[in-house]
Amino acid sequence: DFIDCAKHLIEKQFTSKDRLIITGASAGGLLAGAVLNERPDLFKAAVLEVPFLDVVNTMMDSTLSATVSEYDEWGNPNNKEYFDYIKAYCPYQNIKTQDYPEILVTAGFNDPRVNYWEPLKWVAKLRDMKTDKNQVLIRTSMSGHGGSSGRYDYYKETAMKYAYMLYQAGIKE
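The structure assignment produced for this chain is given below.
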């Protein structure tokens, strides 16, 4: 559906492939990661915030804080039927040797929902496998799942993401 919506926006000339920037946070970051593996050519750039990218390995580790309680939503990969289904869309498992757009990823060191190593692993594997010269940037902060909690830190984080997107859209000043 996400890919079809992007194609529709491009076909109807609301945007173009060189201007379309996607973003997703947490499970939305999983969606963005899966979409980038399937149709990276549709997007100029992507911003993935504390993205849940290594679904297979995380859901296989029942010692992690949220894993067992998430079996109802994601499925228990110890059951082969769920394992195969999760593996089919898992962004980390499905990185391909292909071109990818410009990408900015954020991670929170103290995130209890998406462990910081998930985005780090994904970025490392993506950098190793992609075939283009586009940047894959990662910003890891000491924050949790919802970002920093200081009085102005939210504004600074939001400004950084907007500045990145505006720059990618061609607005440089």
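Interim note for the steering committee: The chain has a mean pLDDT of 91. The beta strands are 21-25, 45-49, 102-108, 136-141.
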